[in-house]
Amino acid sequence: MNKLDATYGHGMIGMILRRTTLFVFAAFVLALPTDLLAQAPGKRVITPQDLWAVKRLSSPELSPDGRTAAIVVQEWSIEKNKPTSNIWLVPVAGGEPRKLTTAQAGDGSPTWSPDGTRIAFVSKRGEDKVAALYVIRTDGGEAEKILELPFALSDPRWMPDGKSVIMATTCIPGLVGKWSKDDIAAMEKEIKRRTDSKMTAKVTEDRHYRYFDRWLTDTVANRLVRVDLATRACTDLTPKWDRPFQPSGNVDYDLSPGRLAGGGDREHHTATLQW
């Protein structure tokens, strides 16, 4: 199953709709009475293994010229009990899809550079402790690791000049200043201390201490950072934000010319960027 079936759908919209239809159909079939599932000659009952073999599509991103979609394709290994996600390039008008990334990893959140020659994405590969930022040329080659921080990176967005990328991450507010090596080392040390701690009690002065299965007592905050692709230097775009954007941990933000807008659980905030 190393090849993505080009007949799966005509264009990006067709692919996503067919994925949804397949899962709805599978759920419907499994709910049918047993006597209706009698096998006809040459046919068989759908099995859980069949469902796990289905390639799952997500995160479609259209290229700047509108001709190609970058799509994340997830495949599950029953033997290894874990998934692998790679990025495929699919011609919108129809044609043969091309597998862009091939690592046994969890590639995700692809986003096109303004000139359409590169794709930035997040992935946890090899010795990575958390999801890091990678960039790969759309004409092929190896992905280049750009940045790894103490907490996972997510939701990359290109700056209009193609020289830097904005991402969301998490930090410990009291230990980060200018995202220097010393700041990062201090956070890594504190993360290890918390991980190794035997204490299970939670201490907080905030009555809003839990969100479903997520504790909100770790004194961490979401931040939006910009990384210069040439120097790897980080700039904190939301340095005064001292809590998660949302209790769920999700980060919601977007760019417009000269402006950055992010949604928080208690208020919305904007920041002015210069480019």
Overall radius of gyration = 22 Å
Low-confidence stretches: 1-37
How many helical elements?
A: 3
Helix/strand-derived category reads alpha+beta
Residues in β-strands, percent: 25-35%
Mean pLDDT: 82
Percent helix among the residues? 10-25%
State the distance separating the first and last CA atoms.
Answer: 44 Å
Tally of domains: 2
Query: What coarse outline follows from CA principal-axis ratios?
Result: globular
What does it look like?
The radius of gyration is 22 Å and the shape is globular. Residues about 1-35 have low confidence and may be disordered. The chain has 2 domains: about 1-105, no CATH class; about 150-275, no CATH class. Strand 13 and strand 14 (about 235) form a beta hairpin. The strands form 5 sheets. The chain has a 4-stranded antiparallel sheet with strand order 1-2-3-4, with helices on one face. The protein is about 15% helix and about 35% strand. With about 280 residues, it is of the alpha+beta class.
SSE map:
Layout (H helix, E strand, L loop, with lengths): L10 H20 L17 H6 L2 E7 L5 E10 L4 E10 L6 E2 L8 E5 L5 E6 L8 E6 L6 E4 L6 E5 L5 E8 L9 H16 L13 E2 L2 E2 L5 E8 L5 E3 L15 E5 L2 E5 L4 E5 L3
Antiparallel strand pairs: 1-2, 2-3, 3-4, 5-6, 6-7, 7-8, 9-10, 10-13, 11-12, 13-14, 15-16, 16-17
